[in-house]
Amino acid sequence: MSILRIIFAIILPPLGVFLTVGIKLHFWINILLTILGFIPGIIHAVWIIAKND
């Protein structure tokens, strides 16, 4: 399942974070980072997925 979440994190970072933690603070931070720049959103999403597995 984590491989699938990482793939989602690369394609659409907030979706990967949502599947990992739900709608919490990290989800909203990731949306903000994705709006400000796509690469920071990807990095944050992969970090959250790796930290919670």
Structural account:
With 53 residues, this protein is mostly helical. The chain has four helices and no strands. The chain has helices at 2-11, 13-21, 25-36, 38-52.
The helical percent reads over 70%
Largest sheet: none
H-E order: HHHH
Quaternary organisation: single chain
**What is the average of the pLDDT values?**
94
Low-confidence stretches: none
Distance between the ends:
10 Å
Shape: globular
Number of helices: 4
Total number of β-strand segments?
0
The percentage of residues in β strands lies in under 5%
Radius of gyration: 9 Å
Provide the structure class.
Answer: mainly alpha
Topology:
Elements: H1 2-11, H2 13-21, H3 25-36, H4 38-52
Brief rundown of the structure:
The protein has helices at residues 2-11, 13-21, 25-36, 38-52. With 53 residues, the protein is mainly alpha-helical.
Summary tags:
53 residues, mainly alpha, globular
